[in-house]
Design brief:
By secondary structure, the protein is an alpha/beta fold. Helix content is 40%, strand content 18%. Helix 2 links the parallel strand 2 (33-38) and strand 3.
Length: 398
C-alpha cells in the first residue's frame, strides 16, 4: 500500500502543523496510509505519539528509531516523506533509505540537493530560496500553517456562553505552553498570578487551557510541589482557593476559552499565533527564573546537568541568547516590531498580575494590540495547499 510518512518533533508542530495538514488530506479523500513519525527533540513532551494516535486520519504512529529499524523500500509501493518540524537531517536520511521523494515545510533552503519540494510560509522565505538558487518550481508559498490550527469562525458571544460567562463576568486566559519545562512550573506560576489578579478583580475568572500533549502527572507534580490545592481526579480541574472567581483548567473548548477572554497571557510559542488569529489581545511573558532548565539547541543543549558547573554555564548561555534575541513572541518576530507587549527576565507571579491589571484597565491599549495584528498576514489555507501537492504526488504516474 502507498504510504505517506509525516515527520514531526515537538508539541507545537504536532498540534499546529501536523493536525491541520492531516485534516486537509482527509477532506480530499487521501487514499494512502498516513504514518506519523516522532523525531528526537529536546523540546518534546513525551506525549506526542499518544496525541498523534488521536488525530483522525493518522493510521500509525512510531518513533524515528523504530521506523528506521523496520523500514525498507518496497517494490511497486509509492512512498513520500513529508517533514513538518524537526531537524532536516532525519528527512534526508529516511528519504534516502526509502528511495523516495522528500518534501518539507520550512523557511530555510537546506539540503537543496535532496529535497524534492519546499513549502514556505511567506514571501520573505520565498525570496530567500530564490537568492539561494532554488528553482521556483521546487518552492510553493503556502502561508503559515499555525493559522489553520485555530478555528476560523469563533464568535466572542458564543464563546462566552460556552465558557459559562454571563453579565459583567470577564476572564483572562493563561497559557504556559506545551513543553515540559514550561508547563510543569508554568501552571503553578500562572495559578498564583491569577489569584493575585482575581483578588483585586472579583468579576474576573481565570482559564488555564491545557495542551493535548501535556503529561497530566507532570502537571499535577508541579501543582503539588508549589503547595497548591486543586480539585479533580487524575487530571486537575480547578484550583481551590478562598478568593473570588474561579481558576479552571480547560481541556475542551480551549479556543473558546481564549476567544471569551479579555486578555490572553502566554509564554512564547505556537499559541501566540493562534491567539493572534482569534484577534484576542496577547501579553507574552518570558520568566527566566530557572534559566538552567530551559532547553538549548545544538551542543549547549547536550551538556549534562550532573557535570560540575553545568547549571551555572547553562544559565549564562540562556541569558546570553536572551540578550541577542530582540523579540521572543512570534507576532513581534514576524513583523520586526513590538505588536504585542512582551516582558522577559526574572519574574514573580505578582509582577505578571500587575502587568495583566495594567492592560485590562486600559481598553484602548487592548484595542491597539488587536489593531496591530493587521500587520500580520492572517491568511489561512496552508494545510490545504500542502495536502493538494501531496495528493498530486500520489495520483501521478510513476
Amino acid at each position: 500500500m502507498d504510504e505517506l510518512f509525516i515527520l514531526t518533533n515537538s508539541p507545537g508542530e504536532v498540534s499546529g502543523w501536523v493536525r491541520p495538514v492531516v485534516s486537509g488530506l482527509a477532506s480530499k479523500g487521501f487514499p494512502a496510509k498516513v504514518s506519523l513519525v516522532v523525531l528526537p527533540c529536546q523540546y518534546a513532551s513525551g506525549m506526542e505519539a499518544e496525541y498523534g494516535k488521536e488525530i483522525e486520519g493518522i493510521d500509525s504512529v512510531s518513533t524515528f528509531k523504530k521506523l528506521w529499524k523496520n523500514s525498507a523500500a518496497l517494490k511497486g509501493t509509492k512512498r513520500l516523506v513529508l517533514q513538518l518540524g524537526g531537524d532536516p537531517f532525519f528527512g534526508a536520511i529516511l528519504s534516502a533509505k526509502l528511495r523516495c521523494t522528500w518534501m518539507i515545510y520550512t523557511s530555510r533552503p537546506r539540503w537543496k540537493s535532496r529535497v524534492g519540494h519546499y513549502f514556505v510560509p511567506d514571501a520573505a522565505a520565498e525570496n530567500r530560496f530564490a537568492v539561494q538558487g532554488v528553482k521556483r518550481d521546487r518552492v510553493t508559498k503556502v502561508g503559515n500553517l499555525i493559522f489553520d490550527s485555530a478555528p476560523e469562525c469563533c464568535d466572542a458571544d458564543d464563546a462566552r456562553r460556552i465558557m459559562g460567562l454571563s453579565g459583567n463576568e470577564q476572564a483572562v486566559s493563561f497559557l504556559p505552553g506545551s513543553r515540559p519545562f514550561e508547563y510543569r512550573d508554568g501552571f503553578p506560576f500562572f495559578s498564583c498570578a491569577a489569584m493575585e489578579f482575581l483578588t483585586n478583580h472579583p468579576n474576573y475568572h481565570a482559564f488555564l487551557p491545557v495542551a493535548p500533549t501535556v503529561d497530566e502527572k507532570l502537571l499535577i507534580e508541579g501543582l503539588d510541589e508549589a503547595g497548591l490545592n486543586w480539585r479533580g481526579g487524575s487530571a486537575a480541574e480547578e484550583i481551590l482557593w478562598n478568593g473570588p472567581g474561579r481558576i479552571r483548567f480547560i481541556r475542551e473548548n480551549n479556543f473558546e476559552a481564549i476567544k471569551a477572554s479579555t486578555l490572553a497571557v502566554a509564554f512564547p510559542g505556537t499559541n501566540n499565533l493562534q491567539i493572534t488569529s482569534l484577534c484576542v489581545p496577547l501579553l507574552t511573558v518570558i520568566p527566566l527564573n530557572q534559566a538552567e532548565n530551559i532547553p538549548l539547541d545544538g551542543i549547549p543543549g547536550m551538556i549534562p546537568m550532573s557535570v560540575p558547573g553545568a547549571k551555572v554555564l547553562k544559565k549564562k548561555l540562556v541569558y546570553w541568547y536572551s540578550r541577542r534575541l530582540k523579540y521572543a513572541s512570534l507576532p513581534n518576530r514576524m513583523t520586526g516590531k513590538e505588536i504585542v507587549p512582551e516582558h522577559r527576565g526574572v519574574m514573580t507571579p505578582s509582577m505578571v498580575a500587575g502587568l495583566v491589571e495594567e492592560l485590562v484597565s486600559d481598553p484602548e491599549r487592548l484595542s491597539g494590540i488587536v489593531r496591530g495584528y493587521s500587520e500580520i498576514v492572517l491568511e489561512r489555507g496552508a494545510a490545504s495547499k500542502i495536502a493538494d501537492k501531496v495528493c498530486d504526488y500520489f495520483s501521478s504516474v510513476n
